[in-house]
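User: Predict the complex with zinc ion.
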Amino acid sequence: MVGQSPSIQSFFPLQTSPFKTSPRTSSPTPGDGFTSEELDTSLVSVGKDDWTPSTTYDEYDIDSLVAGPNRIKIVGRIVNLFESSPKAKLPNGAKGSVHLVIKDNTGAATIKLSYTRISYGLRIGQLVAVWATYVTDGDRGIFPCTVAPLYIKVFPEKDKNCHIRRLDDPKFAQLCRKPLRYESTLMSLKDFTHGGSEVTEAKILVIVKSISTRKKVTKKDGTTTDLVKVGVMDDTSEAILSLWGVASTTPTDWQPSQTALLISSPSLNVSHQTWLALTSSTFIDVDPSIPEAERLRTYAGHMIKRRHINTAYPDEEYEMWNISKPEEHVLYSLADLDDRAREAPEDEFEGYLSVVIIELNMSSLRQQNMLMCNECCGIPLYANSTVARCKHCDEQKRLRVNPRLIGKLIDESGSILSGKLVLSDYAWTRLLGRSTEELIKSSASTLKSVEHRMLHVRITLRFWWSAGVGKLVITDVLE
Ligand SMILES: [Zn+2]
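Assistant: Here is the predicted structure with zinc ion placed in the model:
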């Protein structure tokens, strides 16, 4: 991935912010920047946010902000979020404060947001607008984020001259997605974990693979905090991104195999797994507009599909192929099948296999409450039931027969393991002689006797092979 970029300009055609009527000049355009319609729609998801600026605020690109008193408005995406130090001085009346690092396409600034009770529901990746009256140059005095040295303090509940608002409207979806200093050091996850983390401003691009449920954990000092573990991958390695405390609500709308994260300068811990964490210098660009993100998304999609614990039966693909298929009634051996799939990887073909089941896991899976399974949010779901609720997104997910129910099939030429097969619901019913509902309800002794009856029996399978599916699709089971 490193060094493939011809030039940064070729990726990012010049675009002006839709909030402005003219490109940025050294003096900012006066005005709020929003039409009244935009203001109305941006309020929808924020509930009671009815703040309107009482006077004119100039909208600035972040890199053109200057320290000092000024009524300013900036729009940027949150790239980091952390609680202020417990020892930090709070303004009168504040219960707490968080630091937001926000970034537009020109620079980054740190916002100290003090609050008494309002939960802003802020997450990394969100687009926000901030209205403030003073910009501090963070180079002086104690400063929490050295990579975004402009410091803006807001306490909207107390000071009506400042405000922060989430811009959730889909029309802003592409705004501020250009990474800063992107061309510098994009490295692979593997290189990053093997010494690359020492490089200043090291950047890795990863795809979200799984999202854990949020857990309460007790820290060394006895206090508790929330933790979410996000599985991430690129084409070289995998890691866990841990999101703590105020950042732990961030992955709520991230999608496994879809959401891309460009992470700059995370901390690395390789004690037993590869753990990435945020420091105050870390930036996370969610779904950055860079071509590598699209390429990696495609790669991750294939990998995640292949490793899925219960690959979906490719109904539509098979139907499409079936319409124009040649008439083939060929009996293959497992070795022939393997040869043909390797020699002509693009070939899609159908045929029959005559195999013997030599391993079945029905009883043990029943005992482990794993007869049926599926995945949601990249997390496996198992149960002896047709549905299960995902612990992360709380959605009911339909389960299918666990493919590991068949352990191993052999013929005279070779063997195939259950993980390489995808059976249709129809094929499962034919194979087991019972529907999935009947399978779930069967007693342990019934399943034991079914197992005995099926083991070492020769069966004929009708199969379809397509490299796109990457597994052997079983469409029918014949005695
Ligand atoms: Zn889910």
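The chain has ten helices and 28 strands.
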